[in-house]
Amino acid sequence: MALILVRGENNSKLLSAIADMERHGNLNLTTKPKVVDAKFADSLVEGILNSKLKTTSNVAIAFFVKEDTTLSIMQVKKIHPPAHVVVVSDEYDAYSKLEYVLNNAEDFSAYHSTKAINDGMIDYKINKKERHIRNDKLNSYTK
To answer: What domain of life does the UniProt record list for this protein's source (predicted)?
Structure first.
């Protein structure tokens, strides 16, 4: 599981960045996004990058994805989300700090997953019995 921190100017850009990661990056959220203080997120990113940020963020969120850190980084590189996305590796001190903050943070209420929550499509044709067709691409995080 990888921990992803998203910083941006406003909530709509954060929502768009999450949607891009789900749709185009094929990343699967395992937790709901949690609201993180923007100044705290900026300080974490400065610590990871070892340099000052050019712009500060107004809002920030963080969440876990099912994929590992390396794959998450490669998938985020392929897309160009409208917000600053940082995949936080467990090698950094910021990982444990952010994980601790996420335990007490509130949910990002504006987010609703675009992926299906069910186990897949239902095939009604086979002997009139209900049979679920498993498709892992349709699965989403559990509530």
So the answer is: Archaea
Q: Which amino acid is at 113?
A: S
User: pLDDT tens digits, residue range 107-142?
Assistant: 998 887 766 555 555 555 656 555 555 655 555 544
In this structure, are residues 119 and 131 in contact, taking their beta carbons and an 8 Å threshold?
no
Tell me the C-alpha distance between 111 and 4, whole Å: 15
100-136 exposure pattern, b = at least 16 Cβ within 10 A, e = fewer: ebbeebeebeebeeeeeeeeeeeeeeeeeeeeeeeee
- Four-point Cα dihedral 87, 20, 136, 71, nearest 10: -30
Report how far residue 107's alpha carbon sits from residue 126's, in angstroms, rounded to the nearest whole number: 41
Strand order across the 59-65 sheet: 34-36, 59-65, 2-8, 84-88
pTM score: 0.77
Q: Which residues, including other chains, have CB under 8 Å from residue 143's CB and lie 6 or more apart?
A: 117
